[in-house]
Amino acid sequence: MSEELLGEREKEVLRAVVQEYIATGGPVGSQHLARRAEFDVSSATLRNVLADLEELGFLEKPHTSAGRVPTDRGYRFYVDTMVRLKDPAPRDRELIHAGLAHESGMEELLSEASRLLHSLTRHAGVVVTPRPDVAIFQRIEFVRLREDRVLAILVGQNGQVHNKLLVVDFPVTSDELLKASNYLSELLHEVTLEEARERIRAELDQEQALYNALTSKALKLGAAATDLQTGERVLIEGTGSFLEQPEFADVERMRALFKALGEKHKLLSLLDRVQRAREMQIFIGTESEFSSAGDVTVIASPYGSREQVLGTVGVIGPTRMNYQRIIPLVNFTAQVLSMALDKA
Predict the structure, then answer these.
(1) Which residues form the Heat-inducible transcription repressor HrcA C-terminal domain (predicted)?
(2) Residues 125, 252: Cα–Cα separation, whole Å
(3) 200 and 169 co-located in one domain
(4) Average pLDDT for residues 55-84, to the nearest whole number?
């Protein structure tokens, strides 16, 4: 018997075990299942079905005399074939709209999205911020701080702001800084930061830049300002929620989990797969970068526009989570965040 050949009874028993375990956190036995209204068979029959599902790798026994709990394979089959998704509850939709509706910059909206998901799911909310080099450029401003110090402020189309302190080794007046800002804002309007760098390099290669002192200064300032090393950042809200879950009562398991959460490059690598897929992804147990911690699921969805994916928003929690409720919440949050950033 394989996944494709599971009978209706086996599927219903697997569904019941997953739902009971998600609700109670305790192993599920045949006698408990026999009390459910949908089963009109004996406890002995259910015990045989549980044994078959265990042999197939969908269930396992945490202890010799205990009932069964779902394995990663069992959760995967449940999520892929049994979860019936509905829109989030009206109250949840209202909270998400309200939280992401106020006029804020990108940083505030992204932080609010992770906070909302934590508040609504009681799991860790996670957001990956956009990479600067894919943000659409809108304008650049220069502010003099001292004689040889200038603050460059780069503003993206979606409200993303990057500041960089520049050390200038040539004289430049406040009037020249304003003219440089206007010149570069027009030259680089509605291109990505990466394209802006290329355009500045091309302009610097042109001979006329050598004969126009103001243009030369503006391009040098622009080249320094767009040389950003900052990559994506991961915003996580509510990691303490894992302490509330019995699965992580073990100190070593909790230590492994927080170590994995602290290795942001691994989390970024995982969530980058969501951006490349351009659709929601669900990583259960050993499918994620948290396999050493065990029993962890990541549900994430990309946000941005139809033309451009900016980042990822999602939830990190135990595999024993309410998938039917949380999957629509993550998806809806990504949609509302995308609309909010369009207006930012």
Answers:
(1) 107-327
(2) 23
(3) yes
(4) 89
Interval 167-220: pLDDT, tens: 888 888 889 899 888 988 888 887 877 788 888 888 877 755 555 778 888 888
Final residue before a domain boundary, out of 46, 61, 81: 81
Last residue of a domain, one of 225, 247, 280: 225
Separation CA 200–CA 225 (nearest Å) = 11
| Domain co-membership, 221 together with 276 | no
CA atoms within 13 A of residue 97's CA, in its CB half-sphere: 7
Note the pLDDT tens digit of each residue in 259-304. Answer: 877 777 788 888 888 988 889 999 998 888 776 666 889 999 999 8
Angle (CA) 173 176 179, round 5°: 155
Dump the DSSP string for 176-202. Answer: HHHHHHHHHHHHTTTSBHHHHHHHHHH
Mean pLDDT taken over the chain: 84
Domain range for 163: 133-225
User: Are 109 and 63 part of one and the same domain?
Assistant: no
- Among candidates 243, 252, 257, which has minimal Cα distance to 295? 257
For the entire predicted model, the pTM comes to: 0.75
Q: How many residues does the chain have?
A: 344
Question: Taking Cα atoms as reference points, which of 3, 22, 174 lies closest to residue 80?
Answer: 3
Domain count, the chain: 3
Going by their DSSP bridges, the two strands 69-70 and 161-167 should be labelled as unpaired
Tokens of 172: 């430049």
Q: What is the pLDDT of residues 311-325, one digit of tens each?
A: 899 999 999 999 999
Q: Say if residue 45 is in the same domain as residue 190.
A: no
Q: CB atoms < 10 A from the CB of 250, how many?
A: 11
